[in-house]
Amino acid sequence: MYFYLYDTFVQEQKHEVELISIEHKLIDFGINGKIGKLSVLKNIEQMTKTAVLEGAHTIVIVGNDKTFSRALKTLANEDVAIGYLPLDPKSRYAQILGINDLSTAVEIISKRVIKKIDIGWINNTIYFLTSVEILGNDVVIECDKKFKIIPEKDISKISICNFGNILEGKELLKNNLCDPNDGNLQINFYKKNSKGVMFKKITNKDTALPAKKLFLTNKGETDNQISLEVDGEIVAKTPATVELAHKKINLIVGRERMF
Amino acid sequence: MFKKEENQHKNMSENTGKVTQIGSSVKIEGDFISEENVQIEGAFIGTLKTKQDLIVKDQAVLEAEIQAGNLFLSGKIKGNVTVKGRIELTASAEITGDIICQSISIETGAKLNGKCISGKIETPKETPENENLSKREKRNS
Predict the structure, then answer these.
(1) Which of A45, A117, A126, B137 has the lowest tally of Cβ within 10 angstroms?
(2) ipTM of this complex
(3) Is residue B16 within 8 angstroms of chain A, CB to CB?
(4) What is the pLDDT of residue A41?
(5) Min CA distance, A146 vs chain B (Å)?
(6) Where in chain A is the domain with CATH 3.40.50.10330?
(7) Nearest to B98 by CA among B76, B82, B122
(8) B128 shares contact with chain A (CB less than 8 Å)
(9) Is A89 exposed, middle or buried (0-12, 13-18, 19+ CB in 10 A)?
(10) What is the pLDDT of residues B71-122, one digit of tens each?
(11) CATH node for A2-112
(12) What is the pTM of this model?
């Protein structure tokens, strides 16, 4: 059974025409299924769990990148294929999954090409596909219980990437993406932006190294807990464990996917 | 000066495409084992092993036991170094420790304080006694 999860904003009148055309297409392709609509009383976790219990093998998120990111955090627990119907034409997740527009998205879901990819895990509870971002340099990162990384004062941001921070920047750059199937997370340390020389491209990535399991604690100098962000949302605070989950996630992808 | 940098990058790209980069703004402490090329500009304390190339830039300071495929050194190393292939020391390089490698090139100005053994590195052969020993070790562990 296909289960379509509609975000709250999708139910606004301005998306009505789009939704009707999508639903017709789904019927044409023979992949129509049950529709669940998010509301103040119904959250993603409840709805997806019920859908799986009712026999859903494919869950399709209808919404924008925030909806998809929120859904992934809970859906990674379930043994289902995950699809995406992006209502935002500039959707970054759609780009990396190889979905050009809404009409091709329906075709892609009907073809059901599934790619298994690694997924990150924070404190054994929260899943993430993209990256964990930490602002500042007040953390010490212990990697695979073997070595510690201590950032100096000129580090302004730390990024622990599975796929990379795809929502950052004016456009999605393939060079900034990490391989989500290499069996590792990549830790990137970025320096504060310095004044550049004219015509010279400044890359401020200071350090990039792979690891599987990281333990993040505060530096001795500070008592404040440091925030860990995923897709612009604070999801945890230090001390925290960030690692690759034991399982992989099943994503429905198009031919022009970026991985 | 620029030619040397280019050569170093060529050497790295000949092996595998991936590079672990340790910049000047981080300090690493512990045992670091990598399957990739490693380039260090910052500080490192501990042991470092890579089967690929290790590039130590001139600002880098390492207090470490090192094993690598090849070593291109412009910075400072305090500790013993074992390299399967070749070592290249540039003028700014400084090693305090013993070196074992297949071949070495030292530029004028480089400082080397320690023993240096270069030539074919022989790996210990598996004699029946050694085999029994290693089997016993495995069983015990």
Answers:
(1) B137
(2) 0.78
(3) no
(4) 86
(5) 5
(6) 2-112
(7) B82
(8) no
(9) exposed
(10) 999 999 999 999 999 999 999 999 999 999 999 999 999 999 999 998 876 6
(11) 3.40.50.10330
(12) 0.82
